[in-house]
Design goal:
The chain is an alpha/beta fold. It is built from twelve helices and four strands, in the order E-E-H-E-H-E-H-H-H-H-H-H-H-H-H-H. 71% of the residues lie in helices and 7% in strands. The longest helix has 40 residues.
């Protein structure tokens, strides 16, 4: 398994908890954290190294700079939970510090330049993309295994996720889709009235809602509502070591936590898209009646002629892909959570941002593809 980045937490003072891999490749953002350390009121600090995954000499040097900064503030530091080999490396580094007592006792780590920061950001993004691809592959293998052996599928969690992600989201999706249909009709009413093309409001609302707006608005709402919940739930379980306990009991976390969410979302989001289609067109129909004098009968008659079956199926196909993206990103960021509660919030926020970003990117790619295929 990949090692977590080096981190230290002062959330449970007087404990100063070190975690992750304190090795050269995992220290890329440690300079900013050290320079941003707040002053601590406690006089006796306990340095807890029980969560350290690996420690090389570079990591020991940086870790000692963290502890040395506290020592210069008059703190007494007690070591706890360090493996013998880790404690030995820290002693070697401390000895080197003492040999140069006349020099500065704090490591001077200069913040990276803008060019280095670009490289660091690009490297982190590529590594995260690689980890996401590995996660998707692992889930795909689990899906194949479940198809081969359907008895492994957990139907009760699937039904629970359908209720949470689908049924409970019906009001908010319906209201926003209705208002979106009203807005689209209002914005186009003046221009269509000027050219005497009132009836074409039906084409505009029908095609835009079924093909673009309904699946997109439903996906954005579900990404913020359910995708964030997935990341928070799995992230909290990771922090409290419940996922490790599941592995000890022989329960596969992917099968227990990811697969029911994925199946539930794949079922729920297309159905929510159909609901958004109906409410969005209804909102546009009411506005067309009040603003353009297009009767309900004329609206429905024109809608049947203007909207083809492919327009409807394109929207459902997008919703299916969006459901996979939202679930994968939410669960992936949840499993990447480590450390404490601050990491849960950070990964939850990242899951929402990435889900919405990838949904919009996928929608743009669909538009280009359908334009090429003339669908």
């Amino acid at each position: 398994m990949p090692m977590n980045a080096a981190a230290f937490s002062m959330n449970a003072l007087p404990n100063l908890a070190f975690s992750g891999a304190w090795v050269t490749s995992k220290l890329f953002d440690m300079a900013e954290k050290i320079h941003g350390m707040p002053r601590i009121a406690e006089l006796n600090i306990i340095a807890d190294g029980s969560e350290i995954e690996a420690l090389d000499m570079s990591g020991a040097w940086v870790m000692h700079s963290v502890l040395n900064r506290l020592s210069t503030q008059g703190k007494t530091i007690t070591y706890k939970g360090f493996k013998p080999e880790f404690a030995e490396r820290l002693e070697i580094v401390a000895h080197e510090f003492n040999r140069h007592a006349n020099a500065s006792r704090d490591i001077k780590i200069t913040p990276p330049s803008w060019l280095e920061q670009i490289g660091i950001t690009a490297t982190k993004a590529l590594k995260e993309a690689k980890d996401l691809l590995s996660f998707v592959g692992e889930v795909s293998l689990m899906i194949v295994a479940s198809i081969i052996n359907p008895s492994r599928i957990r139907w009760r969690p699937i039904l629970y996720n359908i209720r949470e992600a689908g049924f409970n989201a019906i009001p908010i999706v319906g209201v926003l889709a209705f208002l979106l249909g009203v807005v689209v009709a209002y914005q186009s009413a003046d221009q269509l009235r000027n050219y005497g093309a009132n009836i074409f409001v039906v084409d505009l609302i029908g095609i835009s809602m079924l093909r673009e707006f309904a699946p997109l608005i439903a996906a954005v709402i579900i990404a913020g509502r359910s995708g964030s919940a997935y990341a928070a739930q799995i992230g909290t379980m990771s922090v409290t070591e419940e996922i490790d306990a599941m592995r000890v009991l022989g329960i596969v976390p992917m099968e227990m936590l990811v697969l029911p969410k994925l199946i539930g979302m794949v079922i729920s989001l297309p159905l929510l898209t159909v609901w958004a289609d109906m409410l969005g067109i209804f909102g546009g129909m009411l506005t067309a009646k009040t603003q353009l004098d297009v009767s309900f009968v004329d609206f429905i008659g024109r809608l049947v002629k203007a909207v083809e079956m492919t327009t409807y199926t394109v929207g459902l196909g997008k919703a299916f892909v969006f459901a996979i993206i939202i679930t994968m990103i939410g669960c992936f960021q949840g499993f990447r959570t480590h450390g404490g509660a601050d990491s849960v919030g950070r990964q939850t926020t990242r899951s929402v941002v990435q889900s919405i970003f990838l949904v919009i990117v996928a929608d743009a790619l669909f538009s280009v593809l359908f334009s090429i295929l003339k669908i």
